[in-house]
Amino acid sequence: MGVDEGLLLLQEFELTDNTSDDFGASAIYGTHAPGAGISPWMEDLHIHDNEASGGGAIIELHYEDTWIRRAEFASNTAGDAIVHMYGGYDIQDTYFHHNTAHAGMRFSGGGTPTYLGRSTFSHNNCAFGTIKLEGGSWLALNNATFAFNDSMRGSVLSALAGSEAVATQLTVTDNSAILGAFHADLGASVYLEIVAAAGDVGNNLCAGGGAFTAWGSNAFSGDATCPMHPTDVMVPNLMVQPLADNGGFAPTMKPAPGSPLIDGSWQFWATWDQRNLPRGNGPSWEIGAFECQPGEC
User: Fold this and answer.
1) Which helix (H) or strand (E) holds 63?
2) What is d(CA 91, CA 157) in angstroms, rounded to the nearest whole number?
3) Per-residue H/E/C for 84-138
């Protein structure tokens, strides 16, 4: 599917078993002239078992303002990225799992902020980042779970020079990367807040020559490579339960009874957790993407 001009509106859309060996997107390609004021809306997408083997992406979008809601990307293979986006995006409620690619979601500049939240990334094999930020990209990543992802650099995030990421309210565990769960090149900046993260299998949480800043209420386990804020803690184990359907669009990881994540946050600005349920149900808030509702944990 190719779209050059006009509104791109996809609802209750399933795309499966497409193959392309050309250099380009095998499934969806959308673009328009800069400043055209087009804001595509995509919701209830099921993108699975597609292949772009010629260096392209499954979905490639060139828009300044795109909304994506309730999208599942599963078992896709791409020589570039599963999703390659130019410009600013608001992406909420996605389940991104069992994909293989150069990068999972790739954001290429544009100077417009991208917001990504209420999402789970699991069991992906993306060599250069489950999420990859290129120069000029700015990402707000919040209320997300990353588990069992495999990468050469950035099993959560790979930030290239000139990019910036603010990562808040994340649960990160059981990933594997040669060069860190969070990787930032020289000239990139990554900020961490209310993040529950266990060290990548055999490797580091924070790596690269970029700037990492802790904004507080983080819980790190098994690794001390990320900077520490006075309100951050090192814990022996995050004590989270396996990925499961706990409500919300995608599987989440609930803190086990006695987990140090429960009531561990010193930050009180966040309102909702990954499932879009209210925070602040106890003396404090939980660290990570999951907030225990009364009697739940």
Assistant:
1) strand 59-74
2) 16
3) EEEEEEEEEEEEEECCEEEEEEEECCCCCCEEEEEEEEECCEECCCCEEECCCCE
Geometric angle at alpha carbon 64, from 70 and 122, rounded to 5°:
35
CA distance 53 to 95: 22
Whole-number Å distance between alpha carbons of 55 and 79: 4
**Rounded distance between C-alpha atoms, residue 78 and residue 99, angstroms:** 8
CA distance 92 to 260: 27
pLDDT value for 203: 64
Is 26 in a helix, a strand, or coil?
coil
Tabulate helix, strand, coil % of the chain (nearest 5).
0, 50, 50
Type of residue at 176: S
Report how far residue 125's alpha carbon sits from residue 203's, in angstroms, rounded to the nearest whole number: 16
- Distance (Å, rounded) from C-alpha 169 to C-alpha 195? 5
Nearest alpha-carbon partner for 255 in 294, 221, 289, 218: 289
Do 188 and 158 form a contact (C-beta atoms < 8 A)?
A: no
Task: Assign 57 a pLDDT band (cuts: 50, 70, 90).
Answer: confident
Give the tens place of pLDDT for each residue, 172-204: 999 998 889 999 999 999 999 999 999 765 568
Instruction: Return the pLDDT at 268.
Output: 78
Listed residue (270, 276, 272) closest to 249, CA to CA: 276
For the four alpha carbons of 94, 261, 164 and 208, in that order, the dihedral sign comes to negative
Of 46-60, 97-111, 242-256, 282-296, minimum mean pLDDT range = 46-60
Confidence of residue 222 (pLDDT cuts 50, 70, 90): confident
Q: What is the pLDDT of residue 156?
A: 97
Cross-strand bridge partners of residue 2 = 29
Whether the model clears a pTM of 0.85, i.e. scores above it, the answer is yes
